[in-house]
Amino acid sequence: MNNRVVYNLHYAFFNMGFTVLRFNFRGVGRSQGEYDQGVGELSDAASALDYLQSMNQNSKHCWVAGFSFGAWIGMQLLMRRPEITGFISVAPPANMYDFSFLAPCPSSGLVINGTRDRVAPPADTQNLVAKLHEQKGITITHTEIDGAGHFFEDPHMDTLTGNVTEYVQRRLTETTR
Known about the structure:
The chain is an alpha/beta fold. It has one domain (4-175): Alpha/Beta hydrolase fold, catalytic domain (Rossmann fold, 3-Layer(aba) Sandwich). Helix content is 41%, strand content 12%. The protein has helices at 4-15, 39-55, 69-80, 122-133, 156-175, and strands at 63-67, 86-90, 109-114, 140-145. Strands 1-2-3-4 form a 4-stranded parallel sheet, sandwiched between helices. The N and C termini lie far apart (35 Å).
């Protein structure tokens, strides 16, 4: 949860007025438990969302944002929770994890990656986005940040958060019309 990408995503949403929560999956940092191949981690994410919703029962919007492995978990959570109205998927590792469960994807969202990502290669992200584009009723926006690696090292972090903020604000404006 203290990764720079996660930290900056957290504050991008906070600065837009969202109630936000970032957390470590089981076995990461000081959290209890151990890695569970995504099964327990999805449960962690669902519990975190339940907690946030209990604190904000009248919220009009519910978004999920994830980075790398967290993007994979966030997309699985999206499939199970119809109240999620949008998503941000940063550097989804389509080369390591199966995203075929996104058929059909229930919400529009932003997929963003760097062109020099060696952990989640751009070609795999492009293939994932192409499959999502085939679905009707949703719009997947794909942004590639030229020269950025997996962790969006400087000067690319500001570009990442700027793109996320612009996308979310545009979507929120569209829903209030």
